[in-house]
Specification:
There is one protein chain. The protein is mainly α. It has 3 domains: about 50 residues, no CATH class; about 45 residues; about 40 residues. The chain is about 75% helix and about 0% strand. It contains 7 helices and no strands. It is elongated and about 80 Å long. The chain starts with a helix and ends with a helix.
Length: about 150
């Protein structure tokens, strides 16, 4: 990004006095009010508003915020991800250990039955990945995960 784009002088932020109804700027005023209330439907306009707001912050504040976010990721999200991957690994290893101790003989598996059982997780994951990602983008995450746990 050029230095000229980073300066606050290039962005014209409307003041409340400039949004006078009598001057014929009712449309601008309504648009700004809808942006402030969070009713923006055009992503380009929303992105422009966020960009204008981001230009108001100084670099030192942005660096401090980046450090806080990085710490939250390091101490909260990464341990949860590692625990999730460990549980997934243990789940797959349980099937391998049970096969070693006689799973195929106990369940009367023949031919490729064990291969299909081992692939069932991957098929389910493949079929559910797209709808699940779509739902995560459209609905509140807390409510969606709560419903998923209830159904499970």
């Amino acid at each position: 990004m050029a230095d000229m784009e980073k300066t606050a002088e290039t962005v014209a932020i409307p003041s409340p006095a400039s949004l006078d109804v009598t001057s014929g700027s009712t449309r601008k005023r309504n648009k700004l009010v809808s942006v402030l209330r969070g009713h923006v439907t055009d992503p380009n306009e929303y992105g422009k508003e966020l960009f204008e707001q981001a230009l108001q912050y100084d670099e030192a504040q942005l660096e401090r915020d980046a450090v806080k976010v990085r710490r939250k990721i390091d101490f909260l999200i990464l341990p949860l991800m590692c625990g999730t991957y460990m549980m997934s690994f243990l789940d797959k290893q349980t099937l391998n250990y049970s096969n070693t101790y006689g799973l195929q003989a106990d369940t009367n598996m023949k031919g490729d039955d064990y291969s299909w059982v081992a692939s069932a997780l991957n098929f389910g994951w493949l079929l559910a990945a797209y709808p699940w990602n779509f739902a995560l983008q459209r609905y509140p995450i807390g409510r969606l995960i709560g419903c998923m746990l209830f159904i499970w």
